C-alpha cells in the first residue's frame, strides 16, 4: 500500500513592533504583511485536518537570536499533530530546548550549513526522525554549480541560502541534500525562494532534482496556488508532503478541499 501524502500548513512567525509573536506572509521572502496570531492559527489548522504543522521563526537566524520558545510552547498546547519548529537553531542544546518546548521535530538551515556536524549530533542524541534539514534554494544561471537542470530552456543550478534567504552560500542544493542525508537527517524541507508566495505552483525542477537524489522524505514548499499544484508536486516531482501557507491562511482553499481533490485523482491521502 502506498504511503499517504501529507498536507502541511505553515506559519512564518516574527516579532511585531511591540515584541509580540505574529504571523506574516510575503512574496519571495520579502514584503511581509501581518496575517494573524500564531496560537489562533495553530488551533484552526489542528481542527481542519492538517497532517502536520510547521512553525518557522523567520528572523531568528538573521538577527542572531533564539527561537521564541514561549510561543512554541503555547502553539504546542493547541496542536495534537506532529509539530515542526525552525529558526535560530544552532546547537545541540537549541535542539533539546525546542523539543522540550513541545516540538516533535526541529527544522535547521543556517546552523547546519555553518556546522554540518550539528546534523549528526542531533540525530545521535534525539533520533533522525527529529532532524529536518531546511533548504532555502534559489536558481543561479552561472557556471559555478555542481548539478544542473533545464528550466524553461535554460540551464541552472540551485544555491543554498541562509538567514531567511538573505545570504548566498555558493553551496549546491543537490550536493547538500546528499550530505545532509548521509549525516542523519530524517527529512528534507525544500523551499524555493523563486516560487515563494507567488501561487504559481511549486518549483518542480528543484523538487524533482532533490527527490531523485535522496531517499529521505521530501517536503515541498513555496508557490502553492491550489489543489492542482499539490497534485503536480506529488505526481511530477515525487514529493512526500506538500506545504502551503497563503491558500490556507486566506481561506482560498481548505485542507479538506485539497485532500478531496487529491483523493479523487488517486493520490493517497489521510482523510
Descriptors:
11 helices; alpha/beta; TIM Barrel; eight-stranded parallel beta barrel
Which SSEs are present, and which pair or pack?
Elements: E1 6-15, E2 21-27, E3 30-36, H1 38-47, E4 53-57, H2 60-63, H3 69-76, E5 83-86, H4 92-100, E6 105-108, H5 110-114, H6 117-126, E7 131-140, E8 149-151, E9 154-162, E10 167-172, H7 173-183, E11 187-192, H8 204-213, E12 218-221, H9 227-235, E13 241-244, H10 246-249, H11 255-264
Parallel strand pairs: 1-4, 1-13, 4-5, 5-6, 6-7, 7-11, 11-12, 12-13
Antiparallel strand pairs: 1-2, 2-3, 7-9, 8-9, 9-10
Helix pairs in contact: 1-3, 9-11
Shape: globular
CATH superfamily: Aldolase class I
N/C terminus separation: 16 Å
Number of strands: 13
Query: What Rg, in angstroms, do the CA atoms define?
Result: 17 Å
Structural category: alpha/beta
The SSE string, one letter per element, is EEEHEHHEHEHHEEEEHEHEHEHH
Assess the beta-strand content as a share of residues. 25-35%
Top-tier CATH class: Alpha Beta
CATH topology: TIM Barrel
Helix content: 25-40%
Low-confidence residue ranges: none
Largest sheet: 8 strands, parallel, barrel
Count of DSSP-assigned helices: 11
Amino acid at each position: 500500500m502506498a504511503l499517504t501524502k501529507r498536507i502541511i500548513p505553515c506559519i512564518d512567525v516574527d516579532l511585531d513592533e511591540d515584541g509580540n509573536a505574529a504571523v506574516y506572509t510575503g512574496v519571495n521572502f520579502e514584503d511581509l504583511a501581518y496575517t494573524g496570531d500564531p496560537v489562533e492559527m495553530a488551533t484552526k489548522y489542528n481542527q481542519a485536518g492538517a497532517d502536520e504543522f510547521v512553525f518557522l521563526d523567520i528572523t531568528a537566524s538573521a538577527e542572531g537570536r533564539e527561537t521564541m520558545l514561549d510561543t512554541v510552547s503555547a502553539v504546542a498546547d493547541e496542536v495534537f499533530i506532529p509539530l515542526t519548529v525552525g529558526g535560530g537553531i544552532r546547537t545541540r542544546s537549541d535542539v533539546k530546548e525546542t523539543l522540550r518546548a513541545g516540538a516533535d521535530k526541529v527544522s535547521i538551515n543556517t546552523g547546519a550549513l555553518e556546522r554540518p556536524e550539528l546534523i549528526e549530533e542531533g540525530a545521535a542524541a534525539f533520533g533522525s526522525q527529529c532532524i529536518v534539514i531546511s533548504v532555502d534554494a534559489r536558481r543561479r544561471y552561472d557556471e559555478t554549480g555542481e548539478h544542473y537542470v533545464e528550466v524553461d530552456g535554460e540551464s541552472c543550478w540551485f544555491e543554498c541560502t541562509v538567514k531567511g534567504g538573505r545570504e548566498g552560500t555558493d553551496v549546491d542544493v543537490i550536493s547538500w541534500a546528499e550530505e545532509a542525508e548521509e549525516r542523519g537527517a530524517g527529512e528534507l524541507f525544500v523551499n524555493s525562494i523563486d516560487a515563494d508566495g507567488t501561487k504559481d505552483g511549486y518549483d518542480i525542477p528543484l523538487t524533482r532534482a532533490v527527490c531523485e537524489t535522496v531517499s529521505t522524505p521530501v517536503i515541498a514548499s513555496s508557490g502553492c496556488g491550489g489543489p492542482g499544484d499539490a497534485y503536480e508536486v506529488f505526481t511530477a516531482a515525487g514529493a512526500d508532503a506538500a506545504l502551503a501557507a497563503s491558500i490556507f491562511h486566506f481561506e482560498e482553499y481548505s485542507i479538506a478541499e485539497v485532500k478531496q481533490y487529491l483523493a479523487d485523482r488517486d493520490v493517497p491521502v489521510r482523510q
